[in-house]
Amino acid sequence: MASMMISGLAGARVGPAAVSRKSSVRARAGQSIRMKSFPARRAVELATVASLVAPGGAQSGANLRYASISSAAGKSPRVESIAFNDPTPAPWYAREFDVHIALDKGLGSIMLLGATALSLYLANSGYAHDFIHFWEHFHFGPKAIGLFLNAHEWVNEGLMAIFFFNVGLEIKREFAFGSLSDIKAALLPCFGALGGMIAPMGIYLALNMVNGGITAGWAIPMATDIAFAMGVYNFFKNRMPPAVAAFLLTLATVDDLGAIAVIAVCFAKGIVPAYLAASAAITGALFVACKKKVTSMAVYGGLGVALWYALLKGGINADIAGVVAALAVPAAAPAPPGSHAHGMEEGMEPTLLDDLIHSLHPISSLLIMPCFALANCAVPVDASALGGVVGTPVGRGIMAGLLLGKPLGIFALCYGAVKMGICSFPKGMNGKHLVTVGMLAGIGFTMSLFLIEQALVGMPAAAVSAKLAILCSSGIAAVIGGFAMTRFPVYFCEIVCDEDEGCRPELYEEQVFKAENDCDEVACTPKFLTEGEEESA
After folding, report:
1. What is the rounded (10 degree) CA torsion for 420, 424, 429, 434?
2. Name one GO molecular function term (predicted).
3. Helix, strand, coil: what percent of the chain each, to 5?
4. Strand ranges across the sheet with 2-6
5. Does residue 79 have a pLDDT over 50?
6. pLDDT at 389 over 70
7. What is the domain partition of the chain in residue ranges?
8. Which of 199, 321, 407, 511 is the 20 to 30 Å CA partner of 33?
9. Span 472-508, pLDDT tens digits
10. In 306-332, which positions are buried (b, 16+ CB within 10 angstroms) versus exposed (e)?
């Protein structure tokens, strides 16, 4: 009988026990797992699947130590044992820093929160006059072409165009390859996004019309901050079925698309027809370049800047130029040689969209969004301002729209669509998950603050009340949404192997695991269903 060793194949971590539900096979971390009559090819499948589903993968230090495979004359190779290393993660200071991993873990949200806190502090300190004066009265730019703007305008009209370019790229990628590429799968979150826009707007208008408030802010509570909502979700994602993440991401993406459309159509001011005609011509040139499969970013960058200028002078919000330019980028064009981007799905080759998002995401999250928060969250926080949050129709309308309108609208339209048979819940998702997603969608923040700058121009008192209402309601929605997620059971991943279907990851709830396997803490446990189960049971 011959034997061989396989090492470094998997990243599966074994907790206190690895158990087959039908057999009595058990092993602890670092111990062997005996498997009678288990084909060797399954070991390779097991290793491949484990490396995909294990949290942290090989970086956790908990990887496959060896697999012993034996073969006898005339018989297929059989796995005799598998052993895993004890998890020994490297200390944080010894790990290589990867900005994209850090962003996935919430670095962008931390930076945005830090910039918001700093802006509020400076606006309410002895530096308040100088800080606010800087944003409003420090002008720079070429006067000859009418771009002598203050710092606040450069952030909102300039840097935010790059942010919207990144948003547009992500939206196009979702339509081309992601959650919006399958119309049937995207239908339910699209219903949710529609309800999540209509209900908050309706509640805001009702409260302001009845109480003599300012109806111009009707669009403010309609938006969802994707980064913050997904950031809160990621803290508790092991308590949610995987389908919930795709649902929330799709809903927030469609929500952003709706907000962008509202900004373009409803907040135009001082229309100049000649510049609008130029904008139309440039837009046509962008999509001709897309049709011709032009991949040079110099072309899209140059036309995008020209479109930005034409829209700015034409009275349309110039940030829309970023979205238009992004939608013109060819979806299927390959990434340039030497790109560090990854395909959207495992095994997919990276595209030009992937490469651009890979490059712009850190700039957008770590530079543009903190600058936006610094420029737009500088509001005085005193008794009078705080009283305006709930004491004015604007503040009440925004808070009620985000905290009540969002979850009610999302739940009502989605649940109605399911009951009428138009669409169905994704696997593992139910009405309780839907309510939780509705609360997370109430985190407005970035896009809502941007809408305030468009809707409440020339109304500084109302803008202050609206900004504080956004900050308060977004914080409350995040806390309630996070708390609601903690009430769900923890989901663990198992690697299930059998002769018919091979190895695959499966999820199960904490209570099921504790009841059947009497174990307290498992992160990702291999489960083996072997041909010899009846013997070992």
Report:
1. -50
2. sodium:proton antiporter activity
3. 60, 10, 30
4. 2-6, 64-71, 78-84, 32-39
5. no
6. yes
7. 2-95+493-510+530-536, 99-267+317-486
8. 511
9. 999 999 999 999 998 887 765 555 555 565 555 555 5
10. bbbbbbbbbbbbbbbbbbbbbbbbbbe
